[in-house]
Write a structure and sequence with these properties.
The structure is a single chain. With 452 residues, the chain is mainly α. The protein is 61% helix and 5% strand. The protein starts with 14 loop residues before the first helix and ends with a helix. The protein folds into three domains: 91 residues, Fumarase/aspartase (N-terminal domain) (Fumarase C, Chain B, domain 1), CATH 1.10.275; 230 residues, Up-down Bundle (Fumarase C, Chain A, domain 2); 87 residues, Ribonucleotide Reductase Protein R1, domain 1 (Orthogonal Bundle). The strands form three sheets. It has a two-stranded antiparallel sheet with strand order 1-2. A two-stranded parallel sheet has the order 3-4. It is built from 18 helices and six strands. The structure holds arginine.
């Protein structure tokens, strides 16, 4: 296959070099975008009379033919070619003859590859945002259905205070909402047309970059050609947004793994989303969640990979930049497949209410309520905290639950205690008292549901 360069060389490229430098094995993913970008470029060259109209028309129809083949999956890609840009140029030359050679006027692969990558990123951000909305929808559905279920909330994975399970679920919705915002924010910044920057310095030919931008739906054109051909911030930004998103999915998975384990048993993942053991016949394992958690490692890896590739590069284009694509593609693939399977898994989740009630037997989770009871009676927080702590310790020593300690004993710690203290030792009561904005009372959680 012919390369897009070669005139100045006296010797054929060593096959080892060809093998080592090619990117076709991964950048073939950009085929469609490369074609669409080239079609807009050819139209612009024609409109500006940089190339004859009849040649431009041939180029456009040739590229449309190639594009339809790519979409059908019948476009042959030579795995020995240098990259996808070379493959498409060669296919065009073969189809339309000499006119094909005019397509690369006023551009270089340096701006061309940045264009295709940006177009790909814009599309994938939209698709990930749609996946995220789907997952948020599943979470909201679950939260609504189980609005009254109370579970112990944890800090340090120790019983902390009772919370609505739906409150916990909606916490994930908040995270995912920020992830959508972050990706959309990346999209705004990468929505800049690099084409026309050429290899490094722009061109002496009278092109109209705004025309190309409009054709391709870019809202701006880049204002510095050296920056445009060597900027990979947008790749790093997306990968970093995906790393954060992956961290959220990993935390969510970890929570489900814990809540689904025998020790907690609050959640039950559908059989169809679990796997078994070849040795222990009784096992039902949450492998899907473990893999979502594990793949977060690759997402972080991608981020470190591209950030490191870029850190020492002098202006402008360097071949190192070709190595941004595999980590980018990998991160996107991991996120999309994780979101897809998690959304489905979510719908299979069942709540074990009896088990949740059992875990709420530990009445020490009401210690904070007792503390705030005293605060409401005018005792300074520090003192109230101390009293509530001493009552918990007293109960532990005597193997008494908080409800088994008599009022006389309560009064021994503070004269402010009355019979009504026992009403606090109830999960429903405890939850409904947390009615501060964003708290776990049903009223607040219903508000959150609406807002989510
Ligand atoms: N395959 C290359 C890449 O992805 C295309 C750009 C090649 N440019 C160059 N000056 N060699 O970066």
């Amino acid at each position: 296959m012919a390369n897009m360069w070669g005139g100045r060389f006296n010797k054929k490229t060593n096959p080892l070099v060809e093998k080592f430098t090619k990117s076709i094995q991964f950048d073939k993913k950009l085929a469609e975008y490369d074609c669409v970008g080239s079609i807009a470029h050819a139209k612009m060259l024609s409109k500006c009379n940089v190339i004859p109209k009849k040649d431009a028309a041939k180029i456009v129809s040739g590229l449309n033919f190639i594009l339809s083949r790519i979409k059908k999956g019948s476009f042959k890609i030579d795995s020995n070619a240098e990259d996808i840009h070379t493959v498409i140029q060669n296919a065009l030359d073969k189809k339309i003859g000499n006119s094909g050679g005019m397509l690369h006027t006023a551009r270089s692969r340096n701006d061309q590859v940045s264009l295709a990558t940006r177009m790909y990123c814009k599309k994938e951000i939209d698709s990930i945002a749609a996946f995220l909305k789907g997952l948020k929808g599943s979470i909201k559905g679950f939260a609504k259905k189980n609005i009254d279920v109370i579970v112990p909330g944890f800090t340090h994975l120790q019983n902390a205070q009772p919370v609505l399970l739906s409150h916990q679920m909606l916490a994930y919705c908040e995270m995912l909402g920020r992830d959508i915002d972050r990706l959309n924010d990346c999209k705004k910044r990468l929505d800049v047309l690099p084409l026309g920057s050429c290899a490094i310095s722009g061109t002496s030919l009278a092109i109209d970059r705004n025309f190309t931008a409009k054709e391709l739906g870019f809202s701006k054109v880049s204002s510095n050609s050296m920056d445009a051909v060597s900027d990979r911030d947008f790749v790093i930004e997306i990968i970093s947004g995906l790393a954060i998103l992956g961290m959220h999915l990993s935390r969510m998975s970890e929570d489900f793994i814990i809540l689904n384990s025998q020790g907690f048993g609050i959640l039950d993942i559908g059989d169809e989303f679990c796997t078994g053991s070849s040795m222990m016949p009784q096992k039902k394992n949450p492998d899907v969640l473990e893999l979502v958690r594990g793949k977060c490692g690759s997402l972080y890896g991608s981020l470190v990979e591209v950030a490191t590739i870029m850190k020492g590069l002098p202006l402008a284009y360097n071949r190192d930049m070709q190595l941004d694509k595999e980590p980018l593609f990998k991160s996107i693939e991991i996120i999309e497949s994780s979101l897809e399977v998690l959304t489905a898994l979510f719908k299979s989740l069942k709540v074990n209410k009896d088990r949740a009630a059992e875990l709420l037997q530990d009445e020490s989770i009401y210690a904070t309520d007792i503390m705030e009871y005293l605060v409401k009676k005018g005792i300074p927080l520090k003192v109230s905290h101390d009293i509530a702590g001493k009552i918990v310790a007293y109960g532990l020593q005597r193997k008494l639950k908080l409800s088994e300690i008599s009022l006389r004993e309560y009064r021994f710690f503070s004269s402010k205690f009355n019979k009504d203290v026992y009403a606090l030792l109830d999960a429903k009561e405890s939850v409904s008292l947390k009615n501060s904005f964003g708290g776990t009372s049903q009223k607040q959680v219903r508000k959150q549901l609406k807002h989510a």
